[in-house]
Write the structure tokens for this entry.
Amino acid sequence: MSGRYSAFALVRQGFAGHKGWPQAWRKAKPKPAYDFVIVGGGGHGLATAYYLAKAHKRTRVCVIEKGWLGGGNTGRNTTIVRSNYFYPESVVLYDLALRLYEGLSRELNFNVMLSQRGILNLAHTQAQLEMAARLANAMQLNGVDAELWGPNEVRERLPLMTRSLDSRYLPNGGVWQKRGGTARHDAVAWGYARAADRLGVDVVENCEATGFIMQNGACVGVETTLDEIRSEAVGVAVAGHSSQLMAKAGVKLPIHSYTLQAMVSEPVKPCLDVVVLHLGTGVYASQSDKGEIVFGGGLDRIPSYGQRGSPPMQELVLAGLLEMFPPFGQLKMMRQWGGIVDVVPDSSPIIGPAPAKGIFLNCGWGTGGFKAIPAGGTLLAHLLATGAHHEISRPFDLSRFASGRLIDEAAGSGIEH
Amino acid sequence: MQIFLCPFCGPRDESEFHYVGEPKARPEPAGSVSDADWANYLWFNANPKGEAREIWLHLTCMETFAMTRDTATNAIVANEASARPQP
């Protein structure tokens, strides 16, 4: 068991040459049976295990991860947290996540480096400005902080932003959410893993789920590359590979898997102190604590499981970044990578029981899963522990595709996710 | 930059093509199709990793055709020239 992190512990370990830090979580071996098995050791899976142990006092829980913790999309995203959504159902969901993020470092005793530097959704055309006004109004009505900015506020806050009238996508205003910002993605996974481990959860790395154990039409565990693990119920939080895993239970999902890519520049001195997302170019950018400009754009155009990213989209994103910030043309690029995201027709997640009894889904977050980790974990834990929907997750049930009650966020808030 | 093969125009840049969907049989007759069957047809996909037969559209000539691709490597396996791809 790991000790508590504190300033005192840091000083004490400093005098000891930092050689006495305990392991953050045990290298657990799976037991033959648990109450719950969570497949997927990314943010959502680990958060689910933590909330099962913390909020529902269910500690006979195992998280299995095929690679290393947070090695999938949790470690590949651009670390943005925000709750600037349009529909009431989405706002409740994403603002729950943001509020939990606000207290997460203390809750987990792990610094997730939340930086609420503010996020600005920039608008260029008259139509985008009207959509921005509509979004700001919707957010305020739903009780979330939002300000509508004009061109002067944008120029004052973002001096590096293009201001030439020749610019193709001159920012003319936007929606400002002050509570938005960034958090350290690895720390979120590690923090949840460590906190869950301290409550008795087994976190097993390098263990891939290869199938479900079905008995009388119900799932009673998972087959893995290590051993069979029996459980009352199974939680599935495997993002871009949800279709692959659920096919093993004979379940189809309304998902297409796409590559979403991101890039970082070489580190430079502080020059961009907010998160910006431009509706005109579809590109978003922020500066990391190390000084790198972290940015990305829309999905690759072709469904794919290749964790690389296609060059035409890379070119489009780079062009968009330079259109927004001409001085960034001097920067050297350091890295480019891709993650496989699970895209749902209405750009809203799927949270709820799967058609196969005993399996519960947390997927379909598409390009925006990181910001929702604390909420996704809370809701999947509630589903597993009680067998029923939380008030917040009910609208996101898989049944919405048959009933037609879609929560079309792509059209609603008009933003890239 | 990947080159896709349009059955009508020949090899062209990938950015000219649009992914339409997986080949599926439309449930008929419409009046007696259940909500679940219709949702299944409209939204639910196999989303395979590896070899996948998909419907594509060449935007510049509007040719619709079936292409078999490997979704893990993005390699093109086969092309079928057909204006009305059969599921």
About this structure: Chain B has a mean pLDDT of 90. The longest strand of chain B covers residues 51-58. The helical segments of chain B are 35-42. Chain B is about 10% helix and 40% strand.
